[in-house]
Amino acid sequence: MWAEGAPDDNIRSMGNTELILFRAIEPPGNSGQENLDLVLGQLEAEDPAFRFARDTRTGETLIYGTGEPHLDEIVEGLRRELGLEIPTIGKPQVVYRETIRKVAEAEGKVIRQSDGRGQYAHVVIRVDPREAGSGFQFFNDAPEGVVPQKYVNPVEQGAREATAAGILAGYELVDINVTLVDGSYHEEDSSELAFKLAASEVFREAALQASPVLLEPVMAVEVVVLEIYLGSVVSDLTHRRARIEGIERSGANQIARATAPLAEMLGYPSDLRSLTGASGTCSLQFDRYQPLPDGLAPNDEENGLPVVAPRNPRPGRQFKSCDIS
Question: What is the pLDDT of residue 116?
């Protein structure tokens, strides 16, 4: 494949590359989807910072990467590899996440009866928020025997799959403890599938009660400008919801360091060139995820934030917003 498509090693979080942007592309011509999928699959196997998926609602192919330069290199690489124009649809869009802010508990059952064997599962699930970046953890605190061990793993699997689908806007739900608190089973009608389905549904109900919130990626920003442009640059950053961390002199230049939401910094290098007569330079590196402020939403076009679209890049998966697998 192409060397230019390598991930940006500067965009890291907790040692793992973060897929923080995605973009929709079209196959070259009416019969180009198969070739496009083949090349994308090869790139996905070679580049740990790249994923692609198909939006089943629109039929669009979505490519995920670590930033605008990474996505641009992927598109240019596809054009060189296939020797054809690869149309892009719209602007790069931000990959948000979801989490919860308090403890909540929910109970539910799957009871289905048809010809022959039925389906029965009963679970009580508690969800707790975890420290940012600590991931997902599952516990079994149910009294011994109320849920046989062979059904505990399907409970965990159902909860894990539900986190991937999200509960607010279909983004991955992160940093959460899930605990099986109680339940019951039927000797003849219970099954692994029934417990998996019950866990998915009950997890979603508990998470919705646990003060869920959207998380947005925040970038560490460093801007180097001549002093005469510093005021304009700082004012512009402030309007982008940036937090100025410090300013220091370096020769004839001033270096401004800040943190700012990625959604506000899309296209910033070009805007900075315009603002500074092409003399300013900048670098952006992924820093962390943080809660989206009240009053803003990913589909808040009035405030310039990206429109919601399928979110969770998993190889070979077909995405349907908010579906539970």
Answer: 65
